[in-house]
Write a structure and sequence with these properties.
Distance between the termini: 45 Å
Structural class: alpha/beta
Mean pLDDT: 89
Shape: globular
Order of helices and strands: HHEHEHEEHEHHHEE
Strand order of the largest sheet: 3-2-1-4-5-7-6
Largest sheet: 7 strands, mixed
CATH architecture: 3-Layer(aba) Sandwich
CATH superfamily: Vaccinia Virus protein VP39
CATH class: Alpha Beta
Low-confidence stretches: none
Radius of gyration: 16 Å
Number of domains: 1
Length: 213
């Protein structure tokens, strides 16, 4: 039996939410992550791509702040839930992280929150975001934080659950590797913030980066 593609794996990831299950806004750091993105974008209204939009929870808050929002996801069930629940944004089903069907420079900002760690082809994804952003566009990224002490605790106390072979995480970023990936992808990092708990066991990390010409 062949391995499923990422799209097949996530196709029905949000199916239970069609029956009323809690959405992404119930995640422990959700509001803090979206607030960090809104703060980084400032008061100007922007065209925002919510990459890996899931059920549209972040898109709703971005739209409520006055931004024009397009959410994209490879999960058919996620896009269906987002379209039903969030009418203030547009949602599009995509085939992969390497191809989003919009012209060059279509967006002023891209939010990718707790998604990049699920992607198989990070380099192709970063190239695509770089293409989609207008000159000087903002790339706002969050990912679970991994640092030396936190990883030591994970390995000692929670290895099997954290690195579950049947789970969706395929990347485990440290601050250094996430920053390097963004820099190699054509972005200049402007700020880094730990979110949830405290250093050195932050739950997640937030980076604001700008498209390099």
């Amino acid at each position: 039996m062949s391995m499923p593609t990422a799209k097949e794996f996530y196709r029905s990831w949000y199916q239970e939410q069609t029956d009323g299950a809690p959405g992404g806004e119930t995640e422990a750091t959700f509001c803090l992550r979206v607030q960090a993105a809104l703060h980084a974008m400032g008061p100007s209204r922007r065209r925002v791509l919510d990459f890996g939009c899931g059920d549209g929870a972040a898109s709703r808050l971005l739209a409520a702040a006055g931004h024009t929002v397009v959410g994209v996801d490879i999960s058919k069930s996620a896009v269906a839930v987002a379209r039903d629940n969030v009418h203030e944004a547009t949602f599009v089903l995509i085939e992969s992280e390497a191809h989003v069907p919009f012209p060059d420079g279509s967006f002023d900002a891209c939010l990718c929150t707790e998604v990049i760690e699920h992607l198989l082809d990070v380099r192709a994804f970063l190239r695509e975001v770089h293409r989609l952003l207008a000159p000087g566009g903002l790339f706002l990224v969050t990912a679970p934080y991994h640092g030396w002490l936190k990883n030591l605790l994970v390995v000692t106390l929670n290895f099997d659950r954290h690195f579950d072979v049947l789970g969706g995480h395929v990347r485990f970023f440290t601050r250094r590797t996430l920053i390097r990936s963004l820099q190699d992808g054509g972005f200049d990092v402007q700020s880094f913030t730990g979110i949830g708990r405290c250093w050195p066991v932050w739950k997640t990390m937030f980076i604001a980066a700008q498209k390099r010409p």
